[in-house]
Write a structure and sequence with these properties.
Layout: H1 7-17, E1 20-22, H2 34-40, E2 42-47, E3 51-56, H3 63-72, E4 77-81, H4 89-96, H5 115-130, H6 138-149, E5 156-164, E6 167-179, H7 181-185, E7 191-203, E8 211-217, E9 228-230, E10 238-239, E11 242-247, E12 254-255, E13 259-265, H8 272-285, E14 299-305, E15 311-312, E16 321-324, H9 330-334, H10 366-369, H11 371-374, H12 384-426, H13 433-472, H14 499-522, H15 528-546, H16 550-575, H17 578-603
Parallel strand pairs: 1-11, 5-16
Antiparallel strand pairs: 1-15, 2-3, 2-4, 5-6, 6-7, 7-8, 8-9, 10-11, 11-12, 13-14
Helix pairs in contact: 5-14, 12-13, 14-15, 15-16, 16-17
């Protein structure tokens, strides 16, 4: 990997393509500078024997002293702490009631997901009590400190330029004093400090020129190819040569399309199998839930990346102040600790992040060490001309291999014919049976080897012809999104629901379900199976009515009932009760007719 060539050239490239970041109305934290943050923070060390201890108190730390401490303790577990203590309950209520508080309307997180997701969410929230978590009121205290000490009108990005393999990667790192996704926007986590990035990839093909080719945003669940979009992607919003990023409210995760995103947080590995079974059942019984989380088995949350709030960059009211960094920048290279409160959360979600160069465990981030591989670009040719050149190299390689294969085929053919001649000579001769059998085995082996050689030559010749045809008639350029395995898009609006009923029901359904479970444990008059069945049907019926999907739910319920009746028919058939078998089959027939009629009614 080659380094940058000069600060002036790098700064010009960064300014020419610096992104526009659009925030959601209600966002409390915008990109800020690291120096005043460090000056207001304390430096802590966690020791195995004695626990956390303060190395440098707040007000006495500088960037230079932070680097000195990190270099003096290369193996130490270091972290910054921006807020000494969260607001108490009274101060927190006053903070929330302040007249200048930014307004935010979620529309109801639970209206975006089904009943199963809401049930799963309850134990997840309870785990926060047992895990290391950011204390309540800390985000409010961080917002106060951010306004008082960090110049909320100054917005730097930390720009880095990497030249490698014909690409120029322009990295834009944004530092935030707080991720308040959970406390302010109902998301998965809170943590002090946040580092996010955008990378613009300029292609410098062999034929010359420098042009923007790809852009990648750091995002929750996206990896590899799914991180990036081509410069001509219709989903990529641009302000001239500046890509537009829609930042998640509180999470600051980057999105290409403005909207509300349902994202999943994976449960602990031991529970993932259980979640898969529950989701399979939910897909059968709740038709509205089949697309609510496209991937994974996680606990769903909504990331609000609406772009209807403030913006920074080209054409926005707020402007960027670029700062160049690279591998020699002392604070980026030497401080591998966390940039905020270390909660020791075993799941990691509530721990502060490390800096732009490091992961939390001290290893170098892939996006820093391998910006091309991080976005799946190591394998992507720079231009059609480079693709043609690479195909020409492959054709030349095949041309060198074919004569050798032809010679090998000729030698094997000659040897195989000699073996066949020898076998014919030995056949039916006294005392030669064992030798003839050995020759027969060798004939079979050599014939198999000969077939493999011919197949190899045929494959190479066919491949060569395909490459020649491609060079003679170059194919059309692949669509901009052909590389995507998962295309992150905002959740669709619940247009067929009854909004007020759904909002109210999504709020009370989980507590009511837990109360119903408690009732079944205490009162056994209904019986466990009958009671569970009754409550599930009642709750899902209300959910279906609230979502305007009663007919779909009725169809799903009938399908399940038909399956149950078929199961009863099979069991009773085995037991010899023909009356019950016939009754079950008649019930199946009735259910099938009703399903067909309901489908016709639904279409009408």
């Amino acid at each position: 990997m080659s380094s940058v060539t000069g600060p002036d050239e790098d700064l010009s490239l960064l300014r020419a393509h610096e992104p526009v970041v659009r925030y959601t109305a209600g966002e409390l934290f915008l990109p800020t500078a690291v120096e005043p943050y460090v000056a207001h923070a304390a430096l802590w060390e966690v020791e195995r024997a004695s626990g956390p201890r303060c190395l440098v108190p707040a007000g006495e730390l500088t960037i230079e002293r932070l680097v000195e401490q990190a270099r003096a303790r290369p193996e130490a577990d270091l972290s910054l702490r921006f807020v000494d203590s969260p607001l108490d309950h009274k101060a927190y209520r006053a903070w929330r009631a302040r007249p200048d508080r930014p307004a935010f309307r979620s529309g109801g997180r639970f209206t975006q997901v089904g009943l199963l997701a809401r049930v799963i969410d309850a134990p997840f929230r309870l785990t926060l009590v047992l895990r290391g978590r950011v204390p309540g009121g800390l985000a409010a205290a961080a917002e106060r400190a951010y306004r008082r000490h960090l110049d909320p009108d100054h917005h730097p990005y930390y720009g880095r330029v990497v030249r490698e393999a014909g690409y120029v990667a322009l990295q834009y790192w944004f530092f935030y004093a707080m991720n308040d996704w959970r406390s302010s926007f109902g998301g998965a986590n809170d943590h002090e400090a946040d580092w996010e990035q955008v990378t613009v990839y300029l292609a410098a093909p062999p034929e010359g020129g420098l042009r923007p080719a790809w852009v990648a945003f750091s995002a929750h669940d996206e990896v590899g190819d799914d991180l990036r979009r081509r410069w001509d992607d219709p989903d990529l919003v641009r302000a001239g040569d500046h890509p537009v990023v829609f930042a998640g409210a509180g999470s600051h995760s980057g999105a290409f399309v403005a909207g509300d995103y349902v994202t999943a947080v994976d449960p602990p590995g031991a529970l993932q199998g259980v979640f898969r079974v529950l989701r399979a059942i939910a897909r059968v019984l709740t038709p509205w839930s089949r697309g609510e989380v496209a991937r994974g088995v996680g606990i769903p949350f909504v990331d609000y990346a609406r772009g209807d709030g403030e913006g920074v960059g080209e054409g926005q009211a707020r402007a960027w102040s670029p700062v160049l960094i690279d591998d020699s920048t002392p604070w980026a290279r030497h401080f591998a600790g966390l940039w905020g409160l270390d909660t020791r959360d075993r799941f990691g979600g509530e721990r502060a992040p490390a800096g732009p160069r490091y992961e939390r465990d001290g290893t170098v981030r892939r996006s820093w060490s391998d910006p091309l591989g991080w976005a799946g670009l190591q394998k992507v040719p720079l231009s059609p001309a480079e693709s043609a050149s690479l195909l020409g190299e492959r054709i030349a390689e095949i041309d060198r291999a074919l004569p050798d294969l032809d010679a090998d085929i000729a030698r094997h053919r000659q040897g195989l014919r000699r073996l066949t001649a020898e076998l014919g000579s030995l056949h039916d001769r006294d005392g030669m049976a064992a030798l003839a059998a050995e020759r027969q085995v060798r004939v079979v082996e050599e014939e198999r080897a000969m077939g493999a050689l011919v197949a190899r030559r045929t494959a190479l010749a066919t491949e060569r012809a395909a490459h020649e045809d491609t060079l003679a008639r170059p194919p059309a350029v692949a669509p901009p999104q052909a590389h995507l395995r998962h295309k992150a898009l905002p959740a669709g609006q619940v247009t067929d629901a009854r909004p007020r009923l759904l909002r109210g029901w999504s709020t009370v359904s989980t507590p009511l379900l837990l109360i119903a479970a408690a009732f079944l444990l205490v009162d056994h008059r209904l019986g466990v199976v009958a009671g569970i069945t009754l409550f599930v049907v009642v709750f899902l019926t209300i959910e279906a009515v609230a979502r305007g999907r009663l007919i779909s739910f009725a169809l799903s319920l009938l399908v399940v009932a038909i399956g149950g009746l078929l199961g009863v028919a099979v069991v009773q058939g085995v037991l010899g009760r023909w009356e019950l078998v016939l009754a079950s089959l008649l019930g199946v027939a009735a259910g099938a007719v009703l399903v067909a009629n309901l489908r016709d009614l639904r279409r009408g």
